[in-house]
Fold:
Amino acid sequence: MYIDPMGLLLIHTAETEQRLARAELRRVIAERVAPDEREQPSAKAAAHPRSRHFFRKTVEAR
Structure:
């Protein structure tokens, strides 16, 4: 079976461009959502004091 090298390059280039476009879209969406998340503290974070959160991370890291 013959595989056309130019066709393979075109397909690879198109797939790469699609992946880059999707990554850029995800980045833009994340930038738009990030300020909203910073303004509203989550209920889970409010339920635990900051010191307990630090201690839990320290214990789990060991």
Observations:
- Residues 5-39 form the longest helix (35 residues).
- Helices lie at 5-39, 43-47, 50-61.
- The chain has three helices and no strands.
- Residues 5-61 form one domain.
